[in-house]
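Hello,

Following up on my earlier ticket. Below are the two sequence lines again, exactly as submitted.
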Amino acid sequence: MKGVAVTGMGIVSSIGNNLEETLDSLKKAENGIDFPEIFKTSHSHLPVGEIKISDSQFRNLLKISPGQAYTRATMLGVFAIRQILDNTGMKEFSSDTGIISGTSVGGIDYTERYFHDFENDPEKRKFIQTQHPGFSTEMIAAYFGLKDFVSTISTACSSSANAIMMGARMIESGKLKRVIVGGSDCLTKFTLNGFNSLMILSDNKCKPFDEGRDGLNLGEAAAYILLEAEDCIDDKKVIGRVAGYGNANDAFHQTASSENGEGAFLAIFKAMKKAGISPQDIDYINAHGTGTKNNDLSESIAMKRAFGTKIPDFSSTKAFTGHTLGAAGAVEAVFSLLSLQEQEIFPNLNFEKRMDDTALMPVTQPKKKKLNSILSNSFGFGGNCTSLIFQKDE
Amino acid sequence: MSRIYINGISSISPQPENIFEGGGIEKYQENVIPALDQDYKSLIRPIMLRRMSKAVKMGLFCSKKALLDAMIDLPDAIMVGTGQGCLQDTEKFMTSMLSSDEGLLSPTSFIQSTHNTVGGQIALDLKCTGYNMTFTQNSVSFESALLDAMLQFSTENDLSSILVGGVDETSHAFTGFQNLDGQLKEKSTGNIDLLRSKSPGTIFSETASFFVLGSQRSGNSYAELKAVEIINSIEVNRIEETIERFLQRNNLNVSDIDTVILGNNGDSRYDTYYHEIQEKLFNDTAQLAYKHLVGENNSVSAYAFWLASKILKEERIPRVFKLNDLNCSQPRKILMYNQYLGKNHGLILLEKL
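Thanks for your patience. The regenerated structure is below:
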């Protein structure tokens, strides 16, 4: 059997608190972008993909006592992973289950909240360590009683795609039998102001791959999948397979993507090589497509280089959820697995006009199609480019 | 499985690199100690240097030195472990954001605040388009990167060399928060006396250590990397059996290990993990430590990796690292064990060539 089996998944984002709600929004082409209500910022005119559950509501839902240092991204992670148990009917994860999480800023939302309080308020100091991404993963692991293999990848917006790739390698090499992989990031002032200072946030709903695109919307989400070795699957349903993966570096600029899309092209190429398939075998691309001038052009050029004149159906689903940063790769991995399950491509919303430079046309309406192999792209600061290939279980 | 050789090494820490050759030992009274300044401009253009935080500077400089040592121009992949990432730029952006109440901000410190800035900047400088990964898991960040490097060598056929390293910097406010959190000692202890301390907390530092791992042995090879494991959480009374099982998985007994390098950091709450194995499992083994020289941070186990590489190549152990009186004239197998605050336990095994 080719590829590593995916036997469970869970997700929370602005378009749904579980798989059913998420699928419903995707099929109905209903986006989750609006103005922030829970997230407090001076830039409340900027649309975001916000999950309409407050931190205290999450604490109640997850039965986390106020004394425990769970930040929002950590609770989103727990919330998504709990669904894997619910969806598979497992009572708990076996103790040999590893976890690899991807996140860009971990628990920095509480650092920015309590920055001036730590000195005089000892009660708040339990949130000092929570700033660090690794601590967030440990707290997620602790919630599920996992004590063994716990690691974290932070490569900005490709973090969770890389966590999935690392998990697949751990299974293939026999180092782990089971591993929960994915990522979590919440809305923070730090990231919103950061992207705002780069002037790449749109005042409107983002328009990936459109000539008139003027920036991205930030979002928050957590998504995780369970990968298992062949001898652990038994009679469990295999949702899909991680068949290919590739990571490369653009080596061009700390934040901007190169004009020739070199990193993206190499990542796509490596992923297809790993999966042992040719460009014409890719049935659909879930693109990174953030809606910024720079990314969408660079990615379009990379797709043209990788696929020539026969570019597969593609769409960016960022207009549904916003750009969920470190979680985006895992969110779109779940979307890709749902596409395989439903044999349906979810649309690129808000699209009006093809880009002058490349004239590529994304899929703009929900589209039923025979799908065997899906390529999912995730690119991050530091030139970090990752492509994953998901295949239907045969 | 193919063999993995350590073909180039470099380290920056609060101690000079010639400490191994009997150079003087730097003594510190502060509880936060910086890395020694380097001749950064000898390898990094001044215009670039001005924009770089300490972590980026240290990481890039160390990478280039390790590559020079291995006589490699371009590695096939880059893996970095950093427990706390780019603290200085994160702090800079956060303080200006908070003090301006989300006003007009310069993006420079934001774009350099991401954890993979060091890995990205190394790639950019070397024009290395290969695999590039950054792990941030507290005190096993470097071990996670090493593990990934081992996976790469075992799954990718066309890899010949990988640059892997660990780097962490300190920053005024964030390291200050660690002090409030009780991670630093309350009183000045002095690095030299750190391991005799009976109080909670430790001293924090900045370090970077980078290595070129290769699939082929070279004239410069230091040692062979045999195994790496990470375990998030273990009780003190189970550390012995955990280490024994790790050795068994590598077809070794305790008696096969002739030197252990331990992460003792003088924190009375958690050094019990080391004491437990010092007194029992490795009672008859040469025991070494390093944090009384270079301090504690989330990727300082990479310094132990540097030390072990030197010991195995030069077949001698400088006295200043010794925890007990046992000598080991021909070190062959070195086990490194480290943890922080009783969590994120890392084990690394190196062998003489």
